[in-house]
Amino acid sequence: WIGEGTTATSDFHHGMTFAAVYNAPVILNVVNNQWAISSFQGIAGGEKSTFAARGVGYGMPGLRVDGNDFLAVYAVTKWAAERARNGGGPTMIEHFTYRADAHSTSDDPSKYRPEDEPESWPLGDPIERLKQHLIEIGEWSEEKHAEAIKEITALVTRKYKEAESYGTLNSGERPEASSMFEDVFKEQPEHLRRQRQKLGV
């Protein structure tokens, strides 16, 4: 899984070359959610062509799919997986979607995009779209959905409480600072030995 911004970095192109040269059985999923942490996808070259087109330059299929359509994503992934398993080599899939929320807790999207942009995204919410499709074909209902949400919420709450019972960062004993240097290398490299010495642990 690769963000669209990553396609403009050298590591991405090294990976594409490796996949093409060795006919690697991989699926390279590029999530084009329109925004990196603070820059529009056009900065990574998305205005000139699709990100999927980059696959073609390496001799592999480059497919673009509506990333908010679960069934379309499933179908293209199934095809690419079968192709890889049968020796067909790598496939690049661009998932055309939208990041409605912040990139991380340190990100404030209101600083770099219009506030109402998430609501105006035309492809809709993927869960809502799948739900409506299943209701239309008689495989789901609003009642079943409400019950599923209730059950899932209860399960997550139970599991969260169970996880908390093992301790959190704010409870119980904290590990010794020296433990971050243990069980990593058989013989500790010099630079880590110096770091440990500086910390006095």
UniProtKB/TrEMBL annotation:
User: Any idea where the Dehydrogenase E1 component domain is?
Assistant: 1-169
- Residue ranges annotated as coiled coil are none
Drop me one GO molecular function for this one.
branched-chain 2-oxo acid dehydrogenase activity
Q: Which EC class, in a word?
A: oxidoreductase
Q: Does the keyword Cytoplasm apply?
A: no
- Cited Pfam families: E1_dh
Keyword vocabulary terms for this entry: Oxidoreductase
Q: What is its EC number?
A: 1.2.4.4
Report residue spans for region: Disordered: 98-124, 164-201
Q: Where is the composition biased (Basic and acidic residues)?
A: 98-115, 183-192
InterPro entries assigned: Alpha-ketoacid_DH_E1_comp, DH_E1, THDP-binding
Its GO biological process annotations read: branched-chain amino acid catabolic process
Name this protein carries in UniProt: Branched-chain alpha-keto acid dehydrogenase, E1 component, alpha subunit
Species of provenance: hydrothermal vent metagenome
